[in-house]
Amino acid sequence: MRAFSQSRHTALSDVDRTVRWCEYRDLPELQSGQFVSVMHRLDVDSSQLADRMCAVQLPSQECVILVLPEYLHDDGVLALRIAMGQVGLRLAARSVVTVPASVLSAIARKGRIEQRAGVSQSRLKTGSTSGHVLFSLLDDLLGWAVRHDASDVHIGVFRGQAHADVAFSVRGVLVRPVQFAKLSIEIMHEMLSVAWMRVQGGNGAVFEPQYEQQGRLERLVGGSRVSLRWASIVSHKGPSVTLRLLQRERSVATTDLSGLGYSEPQLQCLYRARLSTGGAVLLAGSVGSGKSTTLAALIRSLPPERKVITLEDPVEFDLPNAIQCGITAFGDGESDRARFDIKLQALKRSAANDVLIGEIRDQGSARALADLLLAGTNVYSTVHAGSALQIVPRLCSPTLGVSPDLLAVPGVLKLLVYQTLLNALCVECCLDHSQWLSEGERTCPLGMPITHDHAAAWLEMIEGCLQIDRSQFRFRHPQGCSRCQPLLAVSDSGMSGRHPDGEVRAQVSCASGHHSTGYRGSLMAAEFIEPARIVHFWSWIQSLSRMTDVREQARHQSWIDEQQKASEMAKIYVSQGLLDPREYVLRFGSA
Q1: Would you state the pLDDT for residue 167?
Q2: Which domains, and CATH codes, for the chain?
Q3: What Cα–Cα distance (Å) separates residue 40 from each residue in 53, 68, 105, 271?
Q4: Residue 102's closest CA among 215, 238, 208, 202?
Q5: Residue 92: its pLDDT value, please?
Q6: How many other C-beta atoms are found inside a 10 Å radius of the C-beta of residue 425?
Q7: Which pTM does this prediction carry?
Q8: Three-state DSSP class for residue 38
Q9: pLDDT < 70 positions in the chain
Q10: Residues 6+ apart with CB under 8 A from 337
């Protein structure tokens, strides 16, 4: 320690030798990562102290020394206190904090990343990205996602690979733009580590590649505030981080229910559910199927005399007529459950007429659903299920644990909805059946090349299954046209021309063999169940073993006769030449 050999004796007299200390768990700022290392500002040999202690600054501008318990009374602690005083850093009242070795190692790594990236505490607090290369890289990724309406950003940092795997979910397709294909593992790891410093409600003070982590993050991208839901999963090769984009300030152009793509009978179902008192409206569907958009439009359409409260994790849309409450669902399970219960108790004392629960995904949210239904509240939520009919078994599963006896009470379930978004063909370049048969790039629904004879046999088979004349079929053009080619680049070999604005046009591959060229927009396919209108629905819930019976009963109900089933709606799109029959088979099967 260079400076201490000359001034150590005089400096010691100015420093209180009494060590006032506390434990790591006593400072929530440390557990949530709200600190920056100050070791690079001190005139000490940090390499000699790195495995024992380090100094950090909290949001309050006060500093603390993090030390392993066995070095609590080491001379290094006193040396750090002197060094911080010499550069004008203010010590906290409890200036020494004991931490486990694993935490100290992670914090030391965080400090090295900060020093290399040039992160300042003020920049982290204000969110400025102008001079920060790593935050600028993150904002570049998010900017691309916003411009191309991507729902997720996927970042894989895998051992043994020179470059990170960066992909985006666009209309259910994984897209890998060429401009992000050469980002090194080291750069992306550091970017994730720096980004984690801004995560709220996360489990862990720093980014830990060997542990699953979740949290929330907000960035200002292109003038709009983008809320991100961070979820990482650890594979045997390394971590994969998924950032779900939740653009709370985005303008929902079709805020009216009538503009979301539902048929008129389905809209009438939504209107009836909106006006009735008590019971649940539950939506199921795949990722990116518009469930949250539908719920937002439904909540916006409620009359102003009704008090609306939401419980969301995180808040996804701005709803002017609702009191929106965020629920932290990350951390240790017991404390999360307690926080949810506290919020629920406060909600029940708030005299709400309508309550939106963002998603029923665990027993805490399922318990809230049951509690609110018993109180006679109107409840709106989403759940993961493969069809409208599967929503009930999903709620009654051991994972969620809702009682079938509760759901079997008439009026508790008002409306069950399953929906999915299908790729709409570009009408400018789509192929008819004869053009497709003669096309050199014929593929089956799974995307594999097939011969002319195989294609002809498949065409005859699907014509019989769908009961649609082949003259009505239209197929996606594999190269697309100027109207539908997206500004997406995947690989150097995938480039197919350059747009006047300088961006590269390319085909975008996905696992199923589909491409994003040849498509323009999306089509809504949904199915609705109004339990009150289906005979024996309540008795089926009690048994949960009469799936065939309830389907047979449903065949006589108006929701099937009026094409209120998702597969029936998709058939209509096929007959109108709006949906590729191969996508129909891929989504719903051949029957």
Answers
A1: 94
A2: 4-119 (no CATH), 127-246 (3.30.450.90), 257-420+524-570 (3.40.50.300), 424-521 (no CATH)
A3: 14, 20, 16, 62
A4: 208
A5: 87
A6: 27
A7: 0.67
A8: coil
A9: 1-19, 31-33, 102, 106, 108-133, 247-255, 328-340, 440-441, 485-516, 544-564, 590-591
A10: 364
